[in-house]
Amino acid sequence: MKNWFNSPVRLFAALCVVCVLGLAGYYNWIRNKDSAPVQTGVTVTAGSGSPAVVREPVVPSAPLAPTAIDDKARSVSSTAPAAKRIVFRNTAMGSHYGNLAFLNYPMTGQTPQFVKGFSCEVVHVAGGQGICLTADRGVFTTYTARLFDVNFQDRFTIPLKGVPSRCRMSPNGKVAVFTVFLTGHSYTSMDFTTQTILLETGSGAVIANLEDFAVTRDGQPFRAADFNYWGVTFTPDSKNFFCTLSSNRKHYLVKGDIASRTASVIHENVECPSLSPDGARVAYKKRFVIDNRLVWQLHILDVASGKEEALAERRSVDDQLEWLDENHVLYALPESETGTGTTVWQVSADGKKPPGVFLSKAYSPAVVR
Amino acid sequence: VNPVVWKLGFTSLLTDISAEMVNSILPVYVVLHLHMSPLQYGAIDAVYNGMAVTVLSLAGGVLADRTGRYKEIAAAGYGISAICKPLLLAAGGAWGWITVITALDRTGKGFRTAPRDSLLSLHSAPESLASAFAVHRALDAGGSLIGPIVAFALLSRLPGAFDAVWVTSSVFALLGLAVLWLFVDNPRTLAAAVPGRVSLGAGFGLLLTARFGKIAMAGAALSVATVSDGFLYLLLQRGGDVSSGLFPLFFVVTAATYMLLSVPVGYLADAWGRGPVLLSGYCVLGAIYIMILLFPEMGMLSRAGCLVLLGLYYAATEGVLMAMSSAVIPVALRATGLAVLATLIGVGKMSASLIFGWLWERYGASTAVPILALLLAGAVVLAAFLLRKDPHQYEELV
Questions:
Q1: Which pick of A220, A242, B182, B258 has the fewest CB atoms within 10 Å?
Q2: Lowest-confidence pick of A113-117, A229-233, A360-364, B351-355
Q3: Taking the CB of residue A57, how many other CB atoms lie within 10 A of it?
Q4: How far apart are CA B200 and CA B57, in angstroms?
């Protein structure tokens, strides 16, 4: 036997056999591990093995889209909580990984419902319309934006030019927006630039690329080749938006007007803004560099006064926040250092109460009011 | 071509499958699955291009020449990169560790390149050096072509199972290392090496010798006019509606052309002369610059044509330059000299990308590309002057 292994060819052949067998066993193990039932969602008591296929108008008492809600009714909702629905991306490992899912709010005692055929990297729903950015993985991964309606029926699909980052739907459901990373090449430089595009949900047509907006800063025209936009949030009237504009390593908060294609800088060091339902405050992540590492801390900006206040979350959060109601915001954090699961957390917008888990195994929560 | 060249080629093929499996999905893993922003990913990229790699490649060269143990030093480099793959598994999503591991991986690459190329050249007859490098580079390109395909095939069968990619990558790395260890031997002519003479200083001293000095100067000048592929891909993508989902396709076309044309062009270089082939390669690169400049909105077919030309450019330059240098570097300083050349070219390319990036950002592509094209034209003229026909180019130096 010892003699036999003296030949390099035989030794190498033996090594190859061991490797092939080892890999085959390993793949098999992974596959079985994945198909084991996994508990989905914090409120679930039993494994949610059976996917709920949603094709009909969902529960009448909590329609996905209360189309006829006016702004007054919406502002009342902060004092008297109305029935809501939370739409999100499921991040529990298993056959529903990445699936679009939803729960009625309050969520006690429910199992998440999965929407068949909707795998989303990010999702947002408002005004009876939704947008979902999907990745079709393959040797050449392609990305698509899907605009869908109350019944989770596709209305339009738009091919994307890059890796999905954020998306938002305007409160009236008429304008959708998405941001993708246009990548360099993964083999060399990963110099990302962003592309942010406004879509008309009625026709699926592109309204504008934010790069084409005329920007002013302190009343002066502001232009640079390195402009990047991301993290759009719409005002309650759906006619304006706030977003981040980065240039020369600074991150400005700009307010844009969709009709006139103009925008103006109103604050600095604001990333991924999210307007409160009443439109008075912006929740965002503020950038700090600590020990050469990038750290984002959640803050609230009062738009009228320009006053900033830190929230009670001390961890670094890289997410665009979502308002649960006038007093609470939601955001996702990785579940652990290892693994791809995420947890949605909730923290009070007054900066006083500490954060708590809102929904585990979830990402990109959208609160349907 | 000596069988050792094929064996070293298969080592590189397997190692490149391993490396490119990881490289091709790391951005997606970091951005989409760890929910880290591209900016944080940029930190990884900065590590990738760090100067530490350059320093280590010089160390690898000197060490290989000092000890005469080219195979062992190269194996250490391959080993460092191989260890990184199971480490990725152990790191899980821990951010800091991914950065460290990526750096370590590049370190291994820097360390092994000069001793590996020395082995290639020391096992080859001087008159077939370009063919030897061509065969090796063809297999190398093949590996970088197969790697991403293996990775994506795995992920489409086992969605979200990044662990499976790291494990498979480890296995390929191990096999690559095994091929080197089991089948490749150090050259027997090593007695010629005089230990006392080898030092970094002696390596840089080679730059003062007439023949290597000219080649190195020509290589350095040409590298300053060579931007990274990333920029070229971006320029080609910019023109029209190319989704970045097709970005990998750009790479595939380039690598496939490189793989297919490397060997014929290498034979041509041995038969007709390496200098003319090298210069023609850079003229091809110039043609790409001009096409981008004149037809910014070119169609899909022309774009594919540019990518084919890019593959041809690689086939005509990368290995050929190493072959030219190997022919004039004394055996005792082979690895050190090759490392010095690689360092010069690395620094040159890095400055080219920095300058071009700055020009592009500041003045736009329509200014940056012509400047680059002019720079390249100047470099080609200079190189042509430096590399005028040398009748003694095959003479063995000791």
A1: A220
A2: B351-355
A3: 11
A4: 11
**Do A334 and B171 lie within an 8 Å CB cutoff?**
no
Of A137, A185, A226, the CB nearest to B229: A185
Mean pLDDT of B315-324: 94
Asked if B33's CB is within 8 angstroms of A338's CB, the reply is no
Burial of A290 (C-beta count, 10 Å sphere; 0-12/13-18/19+)? exposed
B36 close contact with A: CB closer than 8 A: yes
Q: What ipTM goes with this model? A: 0.75
CB neighbourhood size of A146 (10 A): 22
Q: Closest approach of chain A CAs to the CA of B60, in angstroms? A: 23
> Taking CB atoms and an 8 Å cutoff, what residues of chain A touch B246?
140
Task: Measure CB to CB from residue B244 to each of A23, A162, A189 and give the nearest one.
Answer: A162
Cβ A138–B164 below 8 Å, yes or no? Answer: no
pLDDT at B323: 94
Q: How far apart are the CA of A87 and the nearest CA of chain B, in angstroms?
A: 19
Whole-number Å distance between alpha carbons of A280 and A111? 34
Q: A188 and B229: CB-CB below 8 Å?
A: yes
Residue A113: phi, psi to the nearest 5?
A: -100, 135
Are A166 and A232 a contacting pair, CB within 8 Å? Answer: yes
Contacts of B228 in chain A (CB under 8 A): 188-189
What b/e sequence results for B269-289 when a residue is b if at least 16 CB atoms lie within 10 Å of its CB, and e otherwise? bbeebbbbbbbbbbebbbbbb
Q: Which of A97-106, B10-19, B261-270 has the lowest mean pLDDT?
A: A97-106
User: Quick check: B160 and A143 CB within 8 A?
Assistant: no
pLDDT for position A191: 52
pLDDT in tens, A160-188: 887 888 999 999 999 999 998 875 433 33
Give A-chain residues touching B92 at CB under 8 angstroms: 336-339
Residues in chain A: 369
pLDDT the model gives residue B121: 93
Check residue A83 and give its pLDDT: 67
Q: Are A284 and A272 in contact (CB under 8 A)?
A: yes
pLDDT tens digits for range A301-359: 999 999 999 999 999 898 999 999 999 999 999 876 656 678 999 999 998 999 999 99
